[in-house]
Amino acid sequence: MNKIAILMVFIIFSCVLISTILTLRPFGEPKSTEMDDYIIKNAQNETGANNAVTSVVFDYRGFDTLGEATVLFTAVAGVLLVLRRNAHE
Amino acid sequence: MSEPSKIVKTIASIIFPFTMVFGIYVILHGHLTPGGGFQGGAIVASGIVLLLVAFGSAEIAKRVKESHLSILESAGALCFISLAFLGLFKTFFYNFLAGSNFIFGRIPPFGSNPGDMNTGGVLPLMNMSVGLKVIAGLSAIVLVLSLFARSRKQKKR
Q1: Are B57 and A83 in contact (CB under 8 A)?
Q2: Which end of chain A is more exposed for a tag (fewer CB within 10 A), N or C?
Q3: Is residue B1 part of a domain?
């Protein structure tokens, strides 16, 4: 019974995945969106940085980087909280 | 576990300064070349891990306290968030230094150019604060983990 349920779930899941693959766009399409063109044309003028990736990470999508920094901060705080007292005993 | 040999210690102390210079270069040139705060911070932290492996955690823990590292990490996070808030007169994370002819305020010409350190607005400052944060955070994690492993080993004996 349990094995049959697992098999059913597996088959349904793979059907969903395969149907998703069949509806994917072909490789390399869409060629470029408005967002790419905007960043390539205006990143140097607006942020003054040659590296467009950095200007996206820290300027256009700065809020995302704030989340990343928060993840790192939480990880460090958790590790220090758990292990600091044990390290000195 | 026996002490690492003299060869390991010598090679580690030769390689360490180069690792530091390369990591700090990646952090400081984040707005010109590939890399940035996270990547350069990981490189510098890997140099510190090299020291930990070669000289042992007790030797490093005498010189560096993880509470100091944790303070440095919080300072980096605070710098990052306050830089984001300083642009709040327009929007959150507004690049208020770009094009202002102040520090890092120059605008490079469009297209490929040799690159100028004095560009980028707040991006270099943010790279520096994130780099400080990543250096301090990763080294604190590795230091505390190695101290913990060492205390466990002593307890077992």
Answers
A1: no
A2: N
A3: no
Range of the domain at A52: 2-88
Q: Tell me the pLDDT tens digit for each residue of B34-82.
A: 888 899 999 999 999 999 999 888 888 888 888 888 899 999 999 999 9
Query: How far, rounded to the nearest angstrom, does the alpha carbon of residue B131 sit from its chain's CA centroid?
Result: 4
- Contacts A–B by Cβ distance under 8 A: 125
**A89 SS3 class:** coil
This prediction's pTM: 0.81
Considering CB atoms only, which of A55, A80, A86 is closest to B140?
A: A80
Domain count, chain A: 1
Q: Which domain holds residue B50?
A: 6-156
Domain tally for chain B? Answer: 1
Phi, psi of B119 (to 5 degrees): -125, 175
A39 to chain B, any CB pair closer than 8 A? The answer is: no
Q: Which of B77, B99, B119 sits opposite A69 (nearest CB)?
A: B77
Q: State which residue of chain B sits closest to A78, comparing Cα positions.
A: B141
